[in-house]
Amino acid sequence: MSAPADDLHSAWARLFVSALAQCGVAQAVLSPGSRSTPLALALAAQLPCTVLHDERVAAFFALGQARASGQASVVLATSGTAPGHWLPAVMEAREAGLPLLLLSADRPWEVQQAQASQTVDQVRLFGHHANAYFELGVPDPHPAALRAVTRIAAQAVLATAYPQAGAVQVNAHFRKPLEPQPSDGREPWRPQFEAVARAGAPQLFAPQPTPRPQAVAPRGVLVAGPLPAPQADELRAAVQRFLAASGYVLLAEGGSQLRFGLGAAAQPSCVGAFDALLRSPALRERLHPQLALEVGAPAVSTQWLAWIDGERAPSRWVLPGERPADPAGGAAGMLLGPVAALLDAAAAQLQEQSRPAADARAAADYARAWQTAESAAWAARRQATATADGEALHEHDIAPLLRAALPPGAVLAVGNSSPVRDLDHDLPPDTAPLTVLHQRGAAGIDGGVAGAAGARSLLAAPLALLLGDVALLHDAGGLAAAAAVRGPLAIVVVHNDGGRIFERLPLGRDETLATAREQLFVTPHGRAFDGLAATWGLAYARVDTAAELRRALAQALVADRAMLIEARVAAGGSGRRAALLSAMATAAEAAVCP
Fold first, then answer.
1. Coil, strand, or helix at residue 524?
2. What is the DSSP letter of 80?
3. Quick one: which of 66, 50, 60 has its CA closest to 91?
4. Using CA atoms, how far apart are residues 335 and 53, in angstroms rounded to an integer?
5. How many CA atoms are closer than 13 Å to the CA of 393, on its beta-carbon side?
6. How does pLDDT run across 568-580, given as a tens digit for each residue?
7. What is d(CA 240, CA 528) in angstroms, rounded to the nearest whole number?
8. Nearest 5°: CA angle at 524, between 519 and 526?
9. What mean pLDDT is reported for the chain?
């Protein structure tokens, strides 16, 4: 920033972008437009940039980067309706607790409310869905205005993370000419600009919370819902220390970062089949804890959520991270703050206490009951799901085949609706680390492909995305983002011809609504996806058997570009899923409840 800028507009934009970079913003995602010209040029000169025409796709791409890195990317769009396309990603950022910095270019104040072209009210465009809103006015040479540029940048970046992570909008006004203009570098404002640029962005620090551990009961469970992937190593280490100190049982979902990769000593305490087990009233009674500690976002498991919402709900404390979370209500308390630090503090407290022998025996007996039920459930599933290589694929085959194909260090992104639930129903916990990215904030199916592409843009390891066919149709534009990145990206689409999750809901059990269910909810589409892949120049494979899926994954996970794998599964998957879960619960009940 020490060299003279071409003109005030360019200098203003460069000063702002430089401050963003000093505050930790490391990636930019741009959608082309005229009014944003000064900022686009400044971003391209100072940050790695990805250019995506669709603003909705661009925002989800940036969220994917944040989900992988934990850091906010800056997203730029021109004036008018363009920033409005960011709304779904803004909503997801708020609910998922992900940082996102949105930079909307705008027309100057004198053309507002005057029917000027591409001019709408962009003030606080996202209402309460955004953490904060900042005005970056028309470039102004006044010294106080120049100093405000770097301060606003620092405040905006901090607001993406504190007091809780989410989206922040900065609205930046520009008059024409928007392109760089010749200058002799002698403008009166130049010395002040150089001084501000040398000083850089102010440093802003959020308060650091102090963990406050609470007492824990002898027989307990630690229930892990979605947790941030960038914190996976820290979380695994803290959970292992807590399990060793408490004797608790870990009920870990796939998106928790804890289901895969715990050490051998802690692995026997990890239970993955709990959604199936809790379908048995007898098991609910036998495995009822004295205390449940929920960590992370609320669990996906419908059976856990139903249990804590029922008459015999376990006593609970919630450790949700930075944002309150107790959708069922009734938790005894909530501890906000870094989950790993809170569990470490609790482990240290337990290690300092002398534990009565009776408590230790009760905890061991309780954990043994869960482990026995877990083993019986997965054994029953294995017995019921053997599929030969040449046989038709079933929905319950996809996740295990994908897990087996992923090399060490690979990352798995999983879509909402059925895929994330099937992941938990089909993959038992194991000791091989696996980072799982899950768009769980608002639990929508939009933006999954664009988000995975954003993560792919930052990751060194191979990445696979597991999603349903309707989710792909919702984010078909995201394939443009997938085409824009390099490195292995296997997009595995479970093609069961529609929204089959509705067959698993109460709606699916009412045969008087069968016709309406098919026409209004499942909505079979009958489409293949080879044309979509061809449009964006992606590699493509249609697979109908386990052997074909293995071959396609082996190709995709070493390729230098994205590959769309359309996994056609046999009809009747919802019925088979219900039977599998019932068999798992029945076997576990027989093993634990004589």
1. coil
2. T
3. 60
4. 42
5. 24
6. 999 888 889 999 9
7. 45
8. 140
9. 91
